[in-house]
């Protein structure tokens, strides 16, 4: 028993720089916390999908994007679709610009030569005759890429149900 | 110098500007724009929503300074109000100036279903002002606060605006007329204004807001080498504005479309507003498609298509609201029927040019007062076509009278001028020698005096009108009417009938009109109760005194022989 405590105390002090709780208790020492415990408000748990659902909900609310994407558009003429898309597009763009700030990954003219600014394949993707070592000085810029430089989404309020993208609507007569 | 806050308490939008000696800036106004989302645009839409249990998810109407506000104010109020109109308060300011209702009584929303709590027009105005105060995070007591009102607001509406400001905790506030504020904003933006206007010029300010139209004429004088500004006249209260124009377009287009629900109609209204500006632009398209998306989840399948053409918009707006008329054409007068529904007294004539002709012909009776410059204000005039139409019509009148053509003052700020101008005016008041528009009270006020005659059955005693506030009475002046003594019963409210005229401008203080003519409009009565414990013999002999305070507030006082004074208050409780 005392051998056990001795080992525990020895390794505790050696590795953690403190005397283990049970050793202290057995020796009759009472540990005092140097800092009082801070009582924290229960935090709203934000799930992994909440951010994605939030922006989808906003795009549905402002631009009805989910309605548009989920509709079967096969039976409609291009003219009908075009007329509706103008509004959806305009609203979607306004909404995206309000909550997110965009910039290109490479600020160049597409179709002209551009230097490779990053070795991260997630930021710059090499196409065509990619050398064996994956290193190249530059090439023709095919797509400037999109980068979000700032997000300004409203904080989720308490008990917000992000799984409801749009409420059902009932008009009371 | 105290920093200054200028508040534009508009019919459809409010704005807030802050001035110090060095700078003048518009302040952002945090407000709910969606449930759970606060943003800070520079306008606060003057809409108020009284949320019920079915309107917003729990906790989603919290503001940074209030976890559970009783009302929702601004963008979200306007949005939700389109879906649930029974809980939306709008145009509270027009109700505040509506003499036909009790403005302290809970009457708004006028369309509220049974069981929904209502609020008074004064309470609605208080809420907007309190929101501006809380949202700014500023200590208003450490600022000089100016609130603007339409020039056409009478003494009662101004009094109620001040009451709302006091209830909102704004402290000592000063009122300024909106067209004057717009002109001050123009002065502020043009340090070289003395080169742009000169002696003998007359500037006509045409302010067409969302819901009201307001005219003011300002004269430029030579005062010992310096330029002095004087407000010559203000127009009558006209409930007609930009919203009427967009609504007219929406109603016109609605006739050609299948039946719309309220949300679709709102969308139509919004799109008509945008289409109007596109179609009236100098190189705008000949037609503008309008698409109302399907209401259900079938967006394309249920969509409704329409279009507006430039010709239609020109016909409806230019000829409907700004018709080419002669300067002798008068607006149609309001026809009051006994069965009129309880609502706002909207103008019976949509022709703004006719109202303008009437105004310019009423400054000097029988002749057209010719302005030399025009300053436009209000979002309506973002359209160059509408500005040009007003100038064209005005210049036709001037040419017919042999007067030189008027020119538009360039460089106006149509949406924010009133708040900025109010802040600039506050700075001028604190600057020694700062430029000020002199003007005084733009109306004549009368107290009714009953003649002492033997009572005749079914006949009210004839009433005479004593001029207590002459036209143009200046701030900081007082008139005493020592030769007219009243006997007032102690302990009972004494009531005085009160009248106003915008057209009679020559009656001097103390002048007695033998009868109340059509040129006089009756306002709510003024009343005073003399305290019963005064130890008097039941009746006190007293005289009247009228004062216009330094802040432009009109006051009437009862002065007893021994010098004691009591202030008369408007009785807005009963209908007039």
What does this structure look like?
The complex is a heterodimer of chains A (173) and B (576). Chain A has 173 residues and is mainly α. Chain A has 5 helices and 4 strands. Chain A folds into 3 domains: 31 residues; 55 residues, no CATH class; 51 residues, no CATH class. In chain A, strands 1-4 form a two-stranded antiparallel ribbon. Chain A has a two-stranded antiparallel ribbon with strand order 2-3. In chain A, helix 3 crosses helix 5. Chain A starts with a helix and ends in a 22-residue tail after the last strand. About 8% of the residues of chain A have low confidence. By secondary structure, chain B is an alpha+beta fold. Chain B has 4 domains: 173 residues, 2-Layer Sandwich (Nucleotidyltransferase, domain 5); 128 residues, ATPase, nucleotide binding domain (Nucleotidyltransferase, domain 5); 80 residues, ATPase, substrate binding domain, subdomain 4 (Actin, Chain A, domain 4); 127 residues, no CATH class. Chain B is 25% helix and 28% strand. In chain B, strands 1, 2, 3, 6, 10 and 11 form a 6-stranded mixed beta sheet that branches. A 6-stranded mixed beta sheet of chain B has the order 18-17-12-13-14-19, with helices on both faces. In chain B, helix 7 crosses helix 8. The longest helix of chain B is centred in the middle third of the chain and has 19 residues. The interface between A and B is medium-sized, with 26 and 21 residues.
């Amino acid at each position: 028993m005392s051998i056990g405590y001795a080992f525990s105390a020895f390794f505790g002090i050696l590795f953690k720089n403190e005397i283990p709780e049970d050793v202290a208790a057995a020796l009759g020492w009472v540990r005092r916390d140097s800092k009082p415990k801070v009582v924290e408000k229960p935090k709203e748990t934000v799930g992994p999908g909440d951010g994605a659902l939030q922006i989808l909900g906003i795009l549905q609310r402002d631009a009805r994007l989910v309605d548009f994407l989920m509709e079967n558009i096969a039976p409609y003429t291009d003219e009908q679709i075009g007329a509706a898309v103008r509004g959806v597009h305009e609203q979607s763009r306004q909404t995206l610009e309000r909550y997110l700030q965009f910039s290109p990954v490479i600020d160049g003219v597409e179709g002209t030569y551009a230097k490779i600014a990053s070795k991260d394949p997630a930021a710059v993707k090499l196409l065509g005759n990619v050398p064996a070592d994956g290193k190249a000085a530059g090439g023709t810029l095919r797509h400037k890429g999109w980068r979000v430089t700032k997000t300004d989404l409203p904080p989720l309020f308490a008990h917000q149900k992000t799984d409801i993208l749009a409420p059902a609507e009932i008009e009371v007569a | 110098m105290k920093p200054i806050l200028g508040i534009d308490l508009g019919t459809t939008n409010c704005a807030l500007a802050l001035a110090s000696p060095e700078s003048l800036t518009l302040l952002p106004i945090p407000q709910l724009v969606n449930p759970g989302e606060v943003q800070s645009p520079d306008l606060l839409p003057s809409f108020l929503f009284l949320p019920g249990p079915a309107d917003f998810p729990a906790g989603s109407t919290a503001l940074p300074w209030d976890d559970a506000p009783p009302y929702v104010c601004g963008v979200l109020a306007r949005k939700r109000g389109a879906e649930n109109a029974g809980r939306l308060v709008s145009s509270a300011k027009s109700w505040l100036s509506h003499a036909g209702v009790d403005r302290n009584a809970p009457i708004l929303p006028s369309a509220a279903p049974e069981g929904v709590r209502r609020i008074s027009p004064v309470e609605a105005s208080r809420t907007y002002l309190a929101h501006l105060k809380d949202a700014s995070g500023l200590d208003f007591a450490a600022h000089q606060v100016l609130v603007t009102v339409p020039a056409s607001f009478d003494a009662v509406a101004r009094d109620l605006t001040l009451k709302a400001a006091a209830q909102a905790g704004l402290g000592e506030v000063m009122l300024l007329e909106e067209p004057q504020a717009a002109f001050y904003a123009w002065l502020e933006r043009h340090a070289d204004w003395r080169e742009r206007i000169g002696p003998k010029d007359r500037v006509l300010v045409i302010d067409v807001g969302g819901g009201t139209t307001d005219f003011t004429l300002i004269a430029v004088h030579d005062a010992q080498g310096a330029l002095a500004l004087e407000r010559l006249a203000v127009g009558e209260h006209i409930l007609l504005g930009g919203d009427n124009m967009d609504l007219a377009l929406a109603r016109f287009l609605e006739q050609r479309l299948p039946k719309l629900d309220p949300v679709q109609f709102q969308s139509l209204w919004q799109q008509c507003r945008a289409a109007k500006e596109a179609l009236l632009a100098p190189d705008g398209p000949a037609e503008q498609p309008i698409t109302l998306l399907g209401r259900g989840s079938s967006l394309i399948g249920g969509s409704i298509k329409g279009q507006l053409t430039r010709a239609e918009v020109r016909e409806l707006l230019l000829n409907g609201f700004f018709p080419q008329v002669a300067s002798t054409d008068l607006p149609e007068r309001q026809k009051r029927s006994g069965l009129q529904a309880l609502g706002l007294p909207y103008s019976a004539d949509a022709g703004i040019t006719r109202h303008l002709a009437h105004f310019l012909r009423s400054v000097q009776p029988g002749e057209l007062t010719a302005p030399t410059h025009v300053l436009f204000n209000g979002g309506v005039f973002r359209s160059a076509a509408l500005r040009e139409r007003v100038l064209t019509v005005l210049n036709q009148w001037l040419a017919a009278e042999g007067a030189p053509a008027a020119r538009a003052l360039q460089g106006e700020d149509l949406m924010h001028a009133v708040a900025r101008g109010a802040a600039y005016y506050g700075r001028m008041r604190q600057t020694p020698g700062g430029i000020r528009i002199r003007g005084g009270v733009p109306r004549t006020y009368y107290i009714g005096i009953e003649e002492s005659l033997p009572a005749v059955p079914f006949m009210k005693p004839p009433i005479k009108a004593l001029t207590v506030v002459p036209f143009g009475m200046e701030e900081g002046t007082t008139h005493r009417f020592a030769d007219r003594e009243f006997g007032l019963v102690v302990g009972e409210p004494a009531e005085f009938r009160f009248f106003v005229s915008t057209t009679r401008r020559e009656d001097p203080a103390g002048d007695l009109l033998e009868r109340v003519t059509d040129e006089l409009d009756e306002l709510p009565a003024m009343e005073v109760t003399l305290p019963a414990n005064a130890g008097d013999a039941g009746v006190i002999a007293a005289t009247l005194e009228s004062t216009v305070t330094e802040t432009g507030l009109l006051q009437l006082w009862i002065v007893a022989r021994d010098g004691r004074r009591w202030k008369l208050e408007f009785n807005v409780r009963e209908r007039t």
